[in-house]
């Protein structure tokens, strides 16, 4: 497909940066993999492409092979996920998802799964209520597609099947250790039975089953810290969008507390913080 | 590479650090300056030296200016109860060129971008909030770019400003003049429909 000079594909915009007078270089995820493409004149107010190539836009594209990167000759948006534009928290989760995909998927890698996953994920972040839960589901799926699925069923040291007791998790060893091996491993951190169950559930169940899951705040926090630590260990760097996400959540919580002190607030149909 | 004089290489490197300029363009510019003679090069050098010596950040609106406060903030005939918040100094110029705005500005120097690690602390948001404390400001116009990041920045600001009881508005969105309906994206067209006006 890619051998033709001009070809058509769908794509999602992961990242953009300004280039030259009025152009932008976009990082796109397509069903054929991650590519870099130049969108000419896109920063002009009368650009016919600008509205179709925003961050996280899901569009039908016509691409031409250029010398250094692809050049976008046409773009038409397939759908617009307005909640990502209208809700700061949802937007930030989408940023985080895009950052993860951009970090885990290398250019030139041929795999269609990440594309389908990101497309689904953008819908989750636009529509679902418990965004944190969906982020964990997304992380585990992405880890699986990129070959980093953590081992959750047998001890990574002694290979014994794991029991429902307090076990340990080691990012360095890539999975869970049984209680006995865990106490001897310096890199391992304690893993509660609940958090372990949630990790197993999320990595084996369908989206429909995940939708019914309700987590306690403590379990949520534990699973989040564990997976973020594991991901940062694999990528060998800090995730950029996490800092803003944490700050935003903190501010939104403070705001909510303030509101609840002033009296009952109107029911909030938005995302859970 | 060894054949090129050091001074030439140094300028090529300096040019190629500029946004939008690659190594090829950088060499072309350098050799152009070599050929065009001393005067032109000196003029450019002087302009560069003065760039930082003779500019300051206005302590009120954070715009880049040759005096503090800048000529707009110092102008008493302007309406100081309306602040137009923009992403960067060039946006001030664009709005000034319309000749329709008599209020003052506030330059954020960027937009919120979690992907680039740019949060509220990296922008001139604290300075804006300080300006709103006095109680003189009646309206804040959010004129950040109509992009996802510009919208995110606007949403963040609304949350901070609204509790102060100040009116917050956002620049209208819609079809660009000289544009083509057929090529408009859904969101722009939907916004244009929502913001339609009665004709007389």
Describe the structure.
- The complex is a heterodimer of chains A (273) and B (200).
- Chain A has helices spanning 83-86, 88-104, 113-127, 131-145, 179-184, 193-204, 207-210, 217-235, 240-261, and strands at residues 6-19, 23-30, 33-39, 58-65, 70-79, 167-170, 175-177, 189-191.
- Chain A has 273 residues and is of the alpha+beta class.
- Chain A folds into two domains: 7-80, OB fold (Dihydrolipoamide Acetyltransferase, E2P); 84-259, de novo design (two linked rop proteins), CATH 1.20.1440.120.
- In chain A, the strands form two sheets. A five-stranded mixed beta barrel of chain A has the order 1-2-3-5-4.
- In chain A, a hairpin with a 4-residue loop joins strand 6 (167-170) and strand 7.
- In chain A, helix 2 runs antiparallel to helix 9 (240-261), helix 4 packs parallel to helix 8 (217-235) and helix 6 (193-204) crosses helix 8 (217-235).
- The termini of chain A are far apart.
- With 200 residues, chain B is an alpha/beta fold.
- Chain B has a four-stranded parallel β-sheet. In chain B, strands 1-2 form a two-stranded antiparallel ribbon.
- The mean pLDDT of chain B is 92.
Quick structural summary:
The complex is a heterodimer of chains A (273) and B (200). Chain A is of the alpha+beta class.
Descriptive terms for the model:
heterodimer; A: 273 residues; alpha+beta; OB fold (Dihydrolipoamide Acetyltransferase, E2P); de novo design (two linked rop proteins); 5-stranded mixed beta barrel; 3-stranded antiparallel β-sheet; 42% helix; B: 200 residues; alpha/beta; Dna Topoisomerase Vi A Subunit, Chain: A, domain 2; 8 helices
């Amino acid at each position: 497909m890619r051998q033709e000079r001009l070809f058509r594909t769908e794509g999602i915009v992961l990242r953009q940066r300004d280039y030259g007078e009025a152009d932008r270089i976009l990082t796109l995820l397509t069903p054929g993999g991650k590519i870099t493409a130049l969108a000419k004149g896109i920063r002009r107010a009368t650009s016919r492409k600008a509205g179709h190539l925003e961050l996280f836009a899901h569009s039908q594209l016509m691409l031409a092979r250029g010398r250094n990167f692809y050049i976008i000759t046409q773009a038409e948006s397939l759908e617009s996920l307005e909640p990502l534009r209208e809700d700061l928290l949802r937007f930030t989760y989408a940023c985080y998802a895009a950052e993860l995909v951009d970090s885990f998927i290398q250019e030139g890698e041929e795999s269609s799964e990440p594309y389908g996953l990101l497309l689904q994920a953008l819908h989750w972040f636009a529509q679902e209520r418990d965004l944190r839960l969906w982020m964990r589901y997304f992380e585990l799926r992405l880890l699986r597609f990129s070959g980093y699925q953590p081992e959750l069923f047998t001890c990574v040291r002694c290979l014994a099947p794991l029991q429902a007791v307090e076990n340990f998790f080691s990012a360095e060893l890539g999975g869970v250790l049984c209680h006995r091996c865990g106490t001897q491993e310096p890199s391992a951190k304690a893993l509660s039975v609940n958090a372990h169950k949630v990790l197993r559930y999320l990595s084996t169940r369908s989206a429909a089953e995940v939708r019914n899951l309700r987590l306690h705040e403590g379990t949520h926090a534990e699973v989040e810290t564990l997976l973020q630590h594991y991901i940062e260990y694999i990528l060998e760097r800090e995730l950029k969008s996490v800092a803003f996400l944490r700050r935003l959540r903190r501010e939104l919580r403070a705001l909510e507390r303030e509101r609840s002190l002033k009296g009952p607030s109107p029911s909030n149909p938005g995302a859970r913080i | 590479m060894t054949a090129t004089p050091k001074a030439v290489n140094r300028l090529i490197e300096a040019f190629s650090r500029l946004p939008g300029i690659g190594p090829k363009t950088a060499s072309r510019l350098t050799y152009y300056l070599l050929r065009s003679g001393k005067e032109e090069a000196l003029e450019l050098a002087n302009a560069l030296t003065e760039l930082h010596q003779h500019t300051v950040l206005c302590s009120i609106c954070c715009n880049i200016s040759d005096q503090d406060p800048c000529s707009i903030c110092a102008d008493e005939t302007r309406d100081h109860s309306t602040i137009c918040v923009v992403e960067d100094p060039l946006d001030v110029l664009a709005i000034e060129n319309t000749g329709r705005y008599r209020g003052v500005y506030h330059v954020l120097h960027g937009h919120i971008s979690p992907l680039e690690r740019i949060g509220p602390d990296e922008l001139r948001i604290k300075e804006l909030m300080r300006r709103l404390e006095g109680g003189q400001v009646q309206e804040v116009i959010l004129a950040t770019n109509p992009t996802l990041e510009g919208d995110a920045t606007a949403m963040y600001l609304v949350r901070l400003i609204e509790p102060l009881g100040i009116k917050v508005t956002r620049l209208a969105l819609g079809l660009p003049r000289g544009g083509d309906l057929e090529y408009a994206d859904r969101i722009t067209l939907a916004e244009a429909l929502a913001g339609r006006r009665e004709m007389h």
